[in-house]
Amino acid sequence: MFILKNSSSISQIARLRSPKFRQTGSNCTLSFWYYSYGQSVGAAELQLLVDGLKQPTVLWRTYYSEGNQWLKAVIQLGRLPHPFQFSLDKISLGVYDGISAIDDIRFENCALPPPALNCEGLNHFWCRETKACIDSLLVCDLVDDCGDGSDEDNCNPDLQCDFENGLCNWEQSVKDDFDWIRIHGPTPTVNTGPLKDHTTGTAGGHYLYMESSEPRQFQDQAILLSPLFNPSGNGTCVFRFHYHMFGKQVYKLSVFQRTVSNSLGWLLWYKFGNQENRWIRQTLYISSTKPFQILVKGTVGDGFTGDIGLDDMSFLGCTLYNGNLPTVSTTTSGTSVPATSPKNNCTEKEFVCRASGRCIQMTQKCDFRPDCSDKSDESDCVMEVCDFEDKTQCGWHQPALEQMSGSDSIQTTNIFKWKLGRGANLYPEQEQHSPLTDHTTCTEEGWYLFADSSNGEFGHTADIATPVISLTGPRCKIIFWNHMNGSTIGSLEVLCKTSNRTSKLWTQSGSQGPQWNRAEVFLGIRSNFQVIFRAKRGVSYMGDVAVDDITFEDCSPLLISGKPCTSEEFTCANKYCIPKNNLCDFVNDCADNSDESPTI
């Protein structure tokens, strides 16, 4: 179907209506290919028209010519229980000169689950009227997966929130930078944020979102606090939520668990970057021997196209705690750690948790997953996220300087090496070849790490390395921001060192301009290795290499949960569970390549 016309009539609309559909299942998606090309081709949008609702819901938009090519649009519809149809509108304001076309319209996974003759096992729920057999994790999650609503009957409203009538029993933190906003319809900024909520799938439904436009700045945080819960057994409490992370400058969404009120707690889950224009379901298993609280933290990225959405948050198998969490006057971890190891029966090949004396495998030390209750197994390791604002190097160290520790202090002072710096401390002549502002705060007061070229000679190198990292997961990567400006800038390399073998993973040389540039290096599954930043000095002092905001993303190794994989997961040959979205994506997510097998 196409429009081909040259016209100058004002405000023309070409409208294409679909047949009327009765309903859809919870995993329904619509896809089509479109062509929008021409000097004044104009805008087009796809609207959802639901019986009984006056307000249409915009599902998709294109504003201008997108080149001489066919492009694919994928739209998440989700569960729509009432009759509906689509309207594809092509709008011409003044002059229309171009070609607009649509082809290959496809609906996928739109049927309700089929009826089953039986539905046995603790992991399943048998729908009352439709007789479908669904995963028990779909019960009381604010989504009608059965098609008759029976999976959402007799649910505790205190354990659910769809934000249709406020925040329920969730609260905004007073110790963050700004608040989550309750909204319906699209967010104010185009090309970021949801167009509709997840509960109703329409513009009339409400959700929470984090606004990334001014006056927000990079790494501003908005934190949402759950009600308090009683201690739960091993994975008996389950937290389900839907998140939306769409936009070129989306940064990070994190979930924490805490047992004291004056601590952020420990990290349960996080996601970085643009995840496309869709709501994504996440399920977290929670264990705690003490009363606890969940914190959901959104972090602002580098610009205004970084809105993040939340909707349909629910708990299963959890009970509310009628009391308050204690406060602890101690270190940032919220746990006092004894200076010496307690009595234990650990072997030389095991690590002793400092607070409890528990023995864990040495391979669990420095693997980006705290296995000790006091997180002591990750305390002498490289930090997962480092912005240098606390004036430390976050576990990074310089082997060459350590070897010279007994040498003459003048010798170590004048060598080419890495050190902390900030724009406020620059000499006037340094401003042409060193960062005036850091990347984290974008101010002269913010700190970064740089290799000082005022020392050393042409070709000298400076290495800064992590402690040994015991094990990483299949999607592990390091993300960092670098600043390389100056007439005689040298080079920056990222290396991987295993035993006595060192390999180059990334390199960049020469001046890259007076701005911070993002870099991403894939690590994948590795064991007993170090990451090294190596700066090489240019022919003169007119060029300092700097790095900031170093992040190890998705680096914790795979973990066998001891439970069967859910319907949303794939069971690897080695019994690991991975999201089904990770199948056949050319990445060895299972660590045994079974997710990339041609026989799947």
Short description:
With 600 residues, this protein is an all-beta fold. 2% of the residues lie in helices and 39% in strands. Residues 1-112, 159-320, 384-557 form the MAM domain.
Low-confidence stretches: 330-339, 406-410
Q: What do the pLDDT scores average to? A: 87
How many separate domains make up the residues? 5
Radius of gyration, CA atoms, in whole angstroms: 27 Å
Termini separation (Å)? 36 Å
Task: Output the CATH topology of the largest domain.
Answer: Jelly Rolls
Number of strands: 36
The profile of the biggest β sheet is: 6 strands, antiparallel
CATH architecture of the largest domain, by name, is Sandwich
CATH class of the largest domain: Mainly Beta
The helix fraction, in percent, is under 10%
CA-based shape: globular
The proportion of residues in beta strands is 35-45%
Helix-strand category = mainly beta
Number of helices: 2
Give a description of the structure.
The chain is an all-beta fold and 600 residues long. It folds into five domains: 11-108, Jelly Rolls, CATH 2.60.120; 157-316, Jelly Rolls (Sandwich), CATH 2.60.120.200; 351-379, no CATH class; 382-399 and 415-553, Jelly Rolls (Sandwich), CATH 2.60.120.200; 559-599, Low-density Lipoprotein Receptor (Irregular), CATH 4.10.400.10. Helices cover 2% and strands 39% of the residues. The chain contains two helices and 36 strands. The strands form nine sheets. Strands 11, 13, 14, 16, 19 and 21 form a six-stranded antiparallel sheet that branches. Strands 24, 25, 26, 29, 32 and 34 form a six-stranded antiparallel sheet that branches. It is globular and about 75 Å long.
